[in-house]
Amino acid sequence: MAPVNVCIAGAGTIGSLLAAHLGRVTDVSVLVRRDEHARALNSEGLRVSGRADFTARVTAATEPADLPAPELVIVACKGSDLEAVADRLVGEFGEATVMTIQNGLGAEEVVAERGRWPLLSSVTFMSGTRHSDTHVEYILDAGTWIGPNRATTPADARTVAQLLITAGLKAEAYDDLRPAQWSKLIFNATVNGVAALTGLPHDRHFAEEPLGPLVHALMDEGKATAAAAGVELAEDPWEMNVFATQRGFRHSPSMLEDVHAERPTEVELINGSLVRAARSHGVPVPLQETIYALVRGKEKSYS
Amino acid sequence: MRVCIVGCGAVGSLFAANLAQLEDVEVWAYDASREHVDAINATGLRLSGAGDVVGRLNATTDASELPPCDFGIVATKAMHTDAAIAATAHAFAEGYVATVQNGLGNEETLARHVERVIRGTTFPAGKIVEPGHVQWDVKGDTTIGPYDDRTPLEEARRLADACSRAGMPTTAVADARGPQWRKVIFNASTNPIGALTGLTHGRVCERPDLRALVSGLVDEGKAVAAAQGIVLDSDPEALIDHAAKPEVAYDHKASMLQDVEARRQTEIDYLNGGIVRFGKEHGVETPLNEAIWALVKGVEQSWQP
Fold this sequence. Notes:
The complex is a heterodimer of chains A (about 300) and B (about 300).
Chain A (H helix, E strand, L loop, with lengths): L4 E5 L3 H11 L3 E5 L3 H10 L1 E5 L3 E3 L2 E3 L10 E4 L6 H7 L8 E4 L6 H6 L6 E6 L2 E6 L2 E6 L3 E5 L5 H13 L4 E3 L4 H21 L12 H18 L8 H10 L7 H7 L7 H13 L5 H15 L3
Parallel strand pairs in A: 1-2, 1-6, 2-5, 3-10, 6-7, 7-8, 11-12
Antiparallel strand pairs in A: 3-4, 8-11, 9-10
Helix pairs in contact in A: 6-7, 6-8, 6-9, 6-11, 10-11
Chain B lengths: L1 E5 L3 H10 L6 E5 L3 H10 L1 E5 L3 E3 L2 E3 L10 E4 L6 H8 L7 E4 L6 H6 L5 E6 L2 E6 L2 E6 L3 E5 L6 H13 L4 E3 L4 H21 L3 H5 L2 H20 L8 H8 L11 H7 L10 H10 L5 H15 L4
Parallel strand pairs in B: 1-2, 1-6, 2-5, 3-10, 6-7, 7-8, 11-12
Antiparallel strand pairs in B: 3-4, 8-11, 9-10
């Protein structure tokens, strides 16, 4: 499978970055929610600034039926919009393989129960800022990790990883994504949660007194949960944290931006998934439970 | 009897203006706010709300003006205790110094500067509406007791008697740690949850996951108190549920939430930080209080450029 026609479902920051980059090397269509968003993309294309600087042509529509039949669909919306976007794929794109890229756990299941497409899993570390419907700034050029899920093979994952690399993105294929997915889950549950509650971007505070020991203890709970779930982590989340805080760039995790803007966060897919996995394996995670409860509470304080 | 209020903010002003009503008590007040001090000296210290009182007293921003006093009542925010008592200690060379502040550790700080210390916990509350004028929101009891055997219970009773006669009901007891720890546990288990989530007390308590977190914090605080042989004068859980009622404090924004919204340094070091510190000294684990302490410290760090 070498997909020549890719559909990006959901054009937020990650979806826009994927659509624009892939638009340089293959035919890309974009499924969006708003008419004016589709019109703007069709007339102006999609501009990338920051780490790269170019404008790509894409075909956009608000209905799947108005798009060319894709061989690969990347569901790139935020976790908090996943069910709504997945609902719109029901009965569509019968020939396609569908790849999820949301934070946390469980995105594959949400898509799987809505159609019989072959599925790929992925997680991404790249980030950016969406300046408008047709302009996204590429800020952190970190990788995307891809693995097989339902009715796909490691070779399928490698094909898509190669496609992303050809498009100018960083990607890596894994025979089993769960070790990487869980590393990121533990990292996100901790870093995004603590950032959302403190207002701190992900910077040196996360590796120093007084917050560092809490971050470490939260990750230890996550690691105990992964061990109980039989997952051997691809990377140590604490080392990921220390590395990220040393690169001199103060990244604002999406959950922090969400609470600033009083938007729903991805707390259920991220923190909720980790806490539920811990409960089902009988692993006590009182600190992760604390972060989960506090972020959910913070969402309730929105005016 | 000569009494000096050290830190004449809202709570300090309640003591100062009421004590100034007594003929046998001469009241001084030491405060860092020049405007507040000038207004008090010009027109008196006015309370309105739960009680309407104007107190005539001697206020100063210059500690060297203070005469020798029989009693001090320290009512600064906990992070200002050390500087305030260092400046005023000379006035208490022969006297007794009581704290009515929030949190843990204020007595220890006072005892580094003065000989004779009285522990205390107070519930009345108010806010400064303008220099020289404090709105008295809530009446309430005060409990005081000797910090160590250098303070006879009899002296604590003398101060309690004066406060009670002045309209600030105060009880002197041999061990005032029970009321102090009950209030600290209440505050440490609820205030930072409001501060971190932005929710009022009642809305925190109606969410089962947050209410469970509050109980987890209470249980750690109780264990640290028990390890020191402290008997709480009542269950903080009862106080928490009572406060959550619509007619009590459902809509109340915890003072720490107000601090966070105004980007003012909080009292977290003296609440959860104090519970963690006493827990370490007595071999009691307090992971939840430590987590909450670290998160609020992180909030404070996020304000730095």
